Amino acid sequence: MLREDCASQLNVHLAKSLPLPSNVTRPRIDLIVFVVNLHSKYSLQNVEESLRHVDASFFLGKVCFLATGAGQESRCSIHHNTVVTLAHTYRSPLLFCDLKMEDFRVTMAQRLVRMLQICAGHTPGISALSLLSLLQSPESPSLEDL
């Protein structure tokens, strides 16, 4: 799906939920992407349960939420504001994507790889925490407004 020239090795670990098994050796985790399928309430429940297993330090720029199925709003069983509130609560970026469209998939993959490069420290002059502040939208509603 995505071919990028990188000076470093990219490892992706997919998990349906957290915590990850503790009896496995794995490389350092630089970015956690929680995928919420807007067509499945189970998906949201699973993400909410998994969030309890993430160390608080990851919420300093190393966690993001990806809401899929955003292009088919009529079929959504989870309201957009629900995932907006979730991301706002954890002070983490939220990305919306329709994975059924090839162009969107490629663009989202490129964006996630770029975020990962920053979170892993491979981009001079910018850290995960500064990326977090750049991704915070100035017009993001406060919790009181939601």
Report on the structure:
With 146 residues, the chain is of the alpha/beta class. It contains four helices and three strands. Strands 1-2-3 form a three-stranded parallel sheet, with helices on both faces. Strand 1, helix 1 (41-51) and strand 2 form a beta-alpha-beta unit. The longest helix has 18 residues, at 102-119. The radius of gyration is 15 Å and the shape is globular. It starts with 31 loop residues before the first strand and ends in an 11-residue tail after the last helix.
End-to-end distance? 36 Å
Low-confidence stretches: 141-146
Treating each run of at least 4 consecutive H or I residues as one helix, how many helices? 4
Structural class by secondary-structure content: alpha/beta
Q: Can you give the mean pLDDT?
A: 86
Order of strands, main sheet, comes to 1-2-3
Biggest pleated sheet: 3 strands, parallel
* Shape verdict: globular
Helix content: 25-40%
Radius of gyration: 15 Å
Would you count the extended β strands for me? 3
Order of helices and strands: EHEHEHH
**DSSP strand content:** 5-15%
SSE order and pairing:
Elements: E1 32-37, H1 41-51, E2 63-68, H2 80-89, E3 94-97, H3 102-119, H4 128-135
Parallel strand pairs: 1-2, 2-3
